[in-house]
Design brief:
Strand content: 15-25%
Distance between the termini: 32 Å
Largest sheet: 10 strands, mixed
Structural class: alpha+beta
Radius of gyration: 34 Å
Helix content: 40-55%
Number of strands: 12
Number of helices: 13
Number of domains: 2
Length: 414
C-alpha cells in the first residue's frame, strides 16, 4: 500500500503544480517528438518509396541468355557462346513457377523498325516486342486507352498491337488510334490499345516508341539473317522479402530446364530488379542513425532541464518533506514519491511527443510522395522506454537529495 500511496501523492503533487508539470512535460515532449518524428519520417518515406520501387519491378527478376548479344570474341579472346532460351524452355519454366510467382515471357522481335499508317510513317526507331498475358503487368505498363490482348488473340497469334504514345502522336495526331491499322515487318496490324506516356529513357524513347504484339504473333514473324528468336523471362512475386528465396528456386528450375550439368556454370543469367531498393535500405539505415543521434542529443538536453526543475521542486517543498518525515515517512518513501513524479511527468510529455512525432514524421514523408499513414510501434515502445529511463535518471538525484534532508532543518526552512 505504501507504493500506491506514493503514487497517489505524486499525482496530487503534479496536479497542484500543473503549470510546472506542463512546462516540464513540454521539454520532454520536444525531445521525444524530434526522435520519433525523424525516425517515423524515415520509415514512412521508405514505405512510400518501397511501394514505388515495387511498382517499378523491385519485386521481380529477369532471366536471360548469358552473355546477351555475345559475338563469340572480345579483344582477341574467344568467349563461350551460350544457346538462346527457346520457347519450349521458357514455357516449361513458366509452368513450373506459376504457383509461386507471376511469370511473363517476351521476345525482342525487331529494332529500328519503320511503322506506317495510311497517310504517314515513323522514323526507323521503333522497337517491336512480343509479349504474353502478363507482360504489361510485370513491366508496369498501363493502358491510356483501349484494352489488352484477349486469350483468343494470344493463342492464335492475331495481328493486333498495343502501341506507345509517341507512335500514335506521329501517325494519328487528331484521331483515336484504337481501331486504326498500321503496317510493319510486312504485316498489317490493328491497334487495340495505347500505352500511357512514360517519357524518354536515356534518350531512347522507352515504351513511348514500343509496339507490343502477342507472343505467338512474334514467333510467326521471320527473323532477319536467320537469327534465332531468344526469349526473356520476368518473374514477379507479391512479397519482396521473399525475392532471394524465389530466385534460388528459379535458378534450380532453370538449370534443370536448360540441362546445365552438375558443377557447371549456368547458361543463363538472373538479374534482380531491386538494386534501387537495396540502396534505399542503406541510405535509410544511415538516416535512422543520424535521426537517433539528433533525438538523443535533444533528449539529453531535456533530461538536464528536467533534473533542474526537479531540484527546484525539492527546494520549494522542503517544509512538506519535513512534515512527511515527522509523520513517519521513511527515506525510501520520499525517494519513491519524487521518482514517481519525474517518471509520470516524462510519460505525459513522452506520449504527447510521440503523437506529435508521428504526425510530423508522416507529414514530412507525405511531401515526397503518397504513402499510407504509418504508426511505428517499435519507435513508440522505444520512446516510452526512453521516457521512463530519462525520468529515473533525471529524478533520482533530486529524490535522493530530498530523502536525505534532516526533518528538523526542513521544518525550519522558509
Amino acid at each position: 500500500m505504501n507504493l500506491l500511496e506514493n503514487i497517489r501523492e505524486g499525482l496530487r503533487a503534479i496536479k497542484s503544480n500543473l503549470l510546472r508539470t506542463v512546462l516540464t512535460g513540454l521539454i520532454i515532449s520536444i525531445g521525444i517528438m524530434s526522435l520519433v518524428g525523424i525516425l517515423t519520417a524515415v520509415d514512412s518515406m521508405k514505405h512510400s518509396l518501397n511501394q514505388t520501387f515495387s511498382s517499378l519491378g523491385a519485386n521481380s527478376f529477369d532471366i536471360r541468355k548469358k552473355g546477351g548479344n555475345n559475338r563469340g570474341s572480345q579483344r582477341g579472346r574467344v568467349e563461350k557462346v551460350y544457346p538462346a532460351i527457346t520457347y519450349d524452355q521458357a514455357r516449361q519454366y513458366k509452368s513450373l513457377m506459376e504457383k509461386d510467382a507471376r511469370v511473363s515471357l517476351s521476345a525482342f522481335v525487331s529494332g529500328a523498325t519503320v511503322v506506317k499508317s495510311a497517310t504517314d510513317k515513323t522514323n526507323p526507331n521503333i522497337s517491336v516486342i512480343a509479349g504474353d498475358e502478363f507482360y504489361l503487368q510485370n513491366q508496369n505498363m498501363n493502358l491510356e486507352r483501349g484494352r489488352a490482348f484477349s486469350a483468343f488473340e494470344l493463342e492464335n497469334g492475331s495481328n493486333v498491337a498495343i502501341v506507345g504514345k509517341e507512335i500514335t502522336e506521329k501517325l494519328f495526331p487528331k484521331t483515336d488510334p484504337v481501331g486504326e491499322y498500321i503496317s510493319l515487318l510486312g504485316r498489317r496490324f490493328k491497334i487495340i490499345g495505347q500505352l500511357e506516356k512514360q517519357g524518354s529513357s536515356m534518350g531512347g524513347g522507352g515504351a513511348d516508341r514500343r509496339i507490343i504484339i502477342p507472343l505467338e504473333t512474334g514467333r510467326q514473324i521471320p527473323q532477319t539473317n536467320n537469327a534465332v528468336l531468344t526469349y526473356d523471362i520476368k518473374t514477379a512475386i507479391s512479397k519482396p522479402e521473399e525475392l532471394t528465396y524465389v530466385m534460388g528456386e528459379a535458378t534450380g528450375i532453370m538449370r534443370n530446364v536448360r540441362q546445365d550439368g552438375l558443377g557447371k556454370e549456368e547458361s543463363f543469367e538472373i538479374r534482380r530488379s531491386d538494386s534501387l531498393m537495396q540502396s534505399l535500405n542503406e541510405i535509410s539505415g544511415y538516416l535512422k542513425i543520424g535521426g537517433f543521434v539528433i533525438g538523443f542529443i535533444t533528449l539529453l538536453g531535456a533530461s538536464v532541464g528536467l533534473m533542474n526543475i526537479m531540484m527546484v521542486s525539492v527546494n520549494e517543498r522542503t517544509r512538506e518533506i519535513g512534515v512527511r518525515k515527522a509523520l513517519g515517512a521513511t527515506s525510501l518513501q520520499i525517494r519513491q514519491q519524487f521518482l514517481i513524479e519525474a517518471i509520470v511527468i516524462c510519460l505525459l510529455g513522452g506520449i504527447t511527443g510521440i503523437i506529435l512525432g508521428i504526425i510530423m514524421g508522416n507529414g514530412i514523408a507525405a511531401l515526397i510522395g503518397e504513402g499510407g499513414f504509418i504508426v511505428p510501434w517499435l519507435w513508440v515502445i522505444v520512446g516510452l522506454t526512453i521516457c521512463v529511463v530519462v525520468g529515473v535518471i533525471s529524478g533520482y538525484y533530486p529524490a535522493y537529495k530530498a530523502s536525505k534532508l534532516d526533518p528538523i532543518e526542513s521544518l525550519r526552512y522558509e
